[in-house]
Amino acid sequence: MRLNRTFACLTAVFACLPSLMGWQNLKYPVEAIPKPLLENASVVVRLSELQVTIANPGSMTIKCREVRTILKEGGVTASELQVGYNSLIRVGAISGTIFDARGEKVRNIKSDEIIDFTAFDGFSIYSDTRVKFVNPKHYNYPFTVEYQYDLTFKTALYLPSFYVYEGSETSVEKAVYQLTVPSGYPVHYMEFNGMPPCLIVPAGKNNSYSWHYENFTAKKSEPYQADPTELYPYVLLSPGDYSIEGFSGKADSWEVFSTFFHKLLDGKQALPGATEDHVKNLVSGMDNDHDRIAAIYRYSQTKNRYVSIQVGIGGIVPFDASTVDRFSYGDCKALSNYVMSLLKVAGIRSYYTLVYAGENNRPVRQEMVTDYFNHVILCVPLNGDTIWLECTNPYSPVNYLGTFTDDRYVLLVSETGGKLVKTPAYSHDNNSAVVFSDVVLSADGKASVTQRGVYSGTYYSEQQSLTLMDEKDRHKALLRSIPIPDITISNCEIAAKPGDPRVISKKLAFEANNCLTRSGDMLLVKQGLVSGTQSVPVVSRRRESPVVIKRNNMAIDSTCFHMPAGYVLEVIPQDIVLSNDMASCSFSYTIDGNRLSVVRKLGMNKGVYQAERFNEFRDLLEKIARRDEERLVFKRVTM
Question: What global pTM score does this model have?
Answer without folding.
Answer: 0.90
